Here is the input.
Amino acid sequence: MKALIALFAAALFTTAVADDQSKRDKTRDSSMRTSEVKFKQLDRDGDNQLSKAEAQSEDVLSARFSKVDSNSDGFLSKLEYENSENTDRPVTDR
Ligand SMILES: [Ca+2]
Ligand SMILES: [Ca+2]
Here is the structure.
């Protein structure tokens, strides 16, 4: 019986943790949603990366393509795109 209670407690605990995690994920999602939506719009062939041609529909991105493409494979991954979005605020020259 004791073991059963322990099992229940463990299950409850796991659920609570998972719940917490999904809440945190949602918060993070909403703050990243704009760039994610934009990325999906730009990624016309849906291969989860932006080719130069796909990036061309966005002037700013197209102009900064080689800079945003941090691993220089000729494609922008979602991560590279999101990083560029985050650093794309008014840039002060250093
Ligand atoms: Ca693509
Ligand atoms: Ca890349």
User: Anything to note?
Assistant: The longest helix spans residues 2-42.
